[in-house]
Amino acid sequence: MSHDWICSKDWKIPSDTGDARRILDEVLIDLGEHGWGEEYTFGIHLAVEEALMNAIKHGNQRDPEKYVTVECRFTAKILQIVIEDEGDGFNPADVPDPTLEENLELPSGRGLMLMKTFMTTVDYNEKGNRVFMEKDLDAPPPDDDDDDDDDEDYL
User: Fold this and answer.
1) Measured CA distances, 149 to 143, 146, 152 (Å)
2) Per-residue model confidence as pLDDT tens digits over 31-75
3) Cα(60)–Cα(8) distance, rounded to whole angstroms?
4) Phi, psi at residue 107, to the nearest 5°?
5) Domains of the chain
6) The pTM is what?
């Protein structure tokens, strides 16, 4: 699908959280200047910040010799952002579900859950060192997982 991007920017930064925050601030300012309201940018902020910090801290292990690349583009209704580190990658399926009772005290998994909650799409490459996130303002809300089976009445 082809899009007429309002804004398209690419960055390559060292594994430095200060540089990551500068990019995040720039993305949020650009979105705000083009009509993306706080009801959307709040969640985008959390998701992008988490992905950037994961790339720097977990992917590149804060190695100043390794870089993080960021690609960001958006229209009035669609934001796409790709964040890639130079680390070994990981398998997102191996990250424990932080909402399960046995994992409530574990420090991992919450960030990925936030990313999935606030973005329409979150996909990783096979290696696990590159994340593609999309926020589509026209996408239907995610299915609720209430297991009621009442939904069949509306099909």
Assistant:
1) 12, 8, 6
2) 999 999 999 999 999 999 999 999 999 999 999 999 999 999 999
3) 25
4) -85, 0
5) 7-127 (3.30.565.10)
6) 0.86
